[in-house]
Amino acid sequence: MMKTYPQSPWSLSDLFPSHDSPEMEAAFTELEGKVASFETLCPQLGDEIPADTFLDLLHRQETIYALASRIRSFASLSFSADTQNQAVQTFLGRVDQTMARVNNRLLFFELWWKELDEVHASRLLSVVGDYRYWLEAMRLFKPHTLSEAEEKIVNLKNVTGVRAINQLYSSITNRYVFKVQVDGETKELTRGELMVYARHHDPQLRAAAFQELYRVYGEDGNLLGQMYQTLVRDWHNEQVDLRHFADPISARNLDNDIPDEVVTTLLETCRKNADLFQRYFRLKARWLGVDHLRRYDIYAPVAKSDKRYEFGPAAELVLDSFRHFNPQMADLARRVFEQRHLDSEVRKGKRSGAFCASVMPALTPWVHINYQGHADDVATMAHELGHAIHSMLASSHSLFTFHSSLPLAETASTFGEMMLVDRLLAEESDEAVQRDMLFRQMDDAYATILRQAYFALFERQAHEMVQKGASVDELAKAYVANLAEQFGDALEVSDEFRWEWVSIPHIYHTPFYVYAYTFGQLLVFSLYQQFQVEGDSFKPRYLKILSSGGSASPESILTQAGIDIRSAAFWQGGFNVIRSLVEQLEALPIGKG
Ligand SMILES: [Zn+2]
């Protein structure tokens, strides 16, 4: 008889007994001692540093960061479990302060390493084993680094330049108050509260929410648009003129360690497949009983099934879908339950949403979910346990190389979710549950793949236009054209959406960041398609990707698994999975549930 797991809070005792325990105080003391002794080694850094001294420095750093990670994770996990606890809040503040100081005190190593010339660096790189990619990644920016004096000036001027503008942007936009009429009563809401109505079943409320959102942003449209122009000009001045990147987007690509051509191919493939989502929107219109979907209705709910999954059986279902793919994966996921690293309860004061925290290679990750028994919640459990499996498979790597990089971070999670969904679709006779799963997959696919790709396409165009002196109105016009291409005639887009771009913080504070979402999600779909075609022979290659963690660049990890991310055909494979989701939805009879 299989053991049934209860829904429960997690235990953090593998980290510390409590925030005010003697063990915690001892850890702070130990951290201080280790950092201080590391600082005394500074004079040993030099071109001719012996390989074993260098290795010793790396080990010491790993120990320091592992201890720091234990302390920091304990604080942030305690806070997630109980956000209203003042003692925990205060402790978290203390930890943040300590960690900022520790980072500053250790910074000298990184600065020295980046400065080191090629000959001496490659001598050392040949002996560092698993630390290699971590060290290589630090040096990626060397060709684009200015002299120390220039870097200092850039840093100094950024404080009152781009960073100040971004701060003003968030000060201005965080003060916005949005008003909507709900049941005859005017409510004053924050953006987060307002956007709840984007998913409301009442079509008028959905429209009102978006109209209000862009009325408010639109009133400041000119101002916010000017801030954007300034940031974009600064980006060009710094990244292209001073640091000699080929294109504005290339600076971000190097950050992700993804070649420029790959990003171009990815975005162009998305563009070619926009019609797939348009087809989905037409289908959704039929489910909502309207002739034509409005932009307001993208996230409109299609009636939810009432089916509930008890926690214990749901956990077994998830573990079983992992086991079906690979027994080792199920064993790893089971460890999260066995060691009580899963907080699945819904409690007052607990952080909403879901995440997985990997503290260090030797420790089973902690998983946070708010399980309420919908089919959605089962999928979320599979998703977060997928993250946990990913880092456990990579646990042979160092602290610095076991975390997968951003473009690969969602691989195991989304893949795990898809295995579960496939299972549910195959075994669940309830059409309403099938429908919920498929809509969830498609809404997520739209939001993470196409929407983000079109933001990136807009950014690319906007950066070019600003360089040629485009006005705010011209940028807004380009944005409307971007939406028209994205939605074709499948969606009715009303005029106020011309201000949507000034409401996207990412394009202000981290230019071109958004395409990483597209990359990650589509990558998983493409892998999934290969799995469907190849069956068992795909599995070892997939496990190799996961067990590589972050020990090499995304391209080299994927190349080793036989995947060519430079080829458009690979990315197209991801869209084939999406096509099949749409076809499955099209095959369901409309109107039940
Ligand atoms: Zn995730």
| DSSP E strands, number | 7
CA gyration radius, whole angstroms = 25 Å
Summed over residues and divided by their number, the pLDDT gives a mean of: 93
- The helix/strand class is mainly alpha
Q: Work out the helix count.
A: 24
Specify the biggest β-sheet. Answer: 3 strands, mixed
The end-to-end span amounts to 34 Å
In the predicted model, the low-confidence regions spanning at least 5 consecutive residues are none
Q: Strand share of the residues?
A: under 5%
Hetero groups: zinc ion
Portion in helices: 55-70%
- Rough outline: globular
Q: If strands are numbered along the chain, what order do they take across the biggest sheet?
A: 4-6-5
Fold topology:
Elements: H1 22-39, H2 51-81, H3 86-115, H4 118-125, H5 132-139, H6 148-160, H7 162-174, E1 178-182, E2 185-189, H8 191-195, H9 203-219, H10 221-242, H11 248-256, H12 260-272, H13 274-288, E3 293-294, H14 311-325, H15 327-338, E4 342-343, E5 355-357, E6 366-368, H16 375-393, H17 411-427, H18 431-467, H19 472-487, E7 491-492, H20 505-509, H21 515-534, H22 539-547, H23 554-560, H24 568-587
Parallel strand pairs: 3-7, 4-6
Antiparallel strand pairs: 1-2, 5-6
Helix pairs in contact: 1-2, 2-3, 6-7, 7-10, 10-18, 12-24, 13-24, 14-15, 14-16, 14-17, 15-16, 16-17, 17-21, 18-19, 18-21, 18-24, 21-24
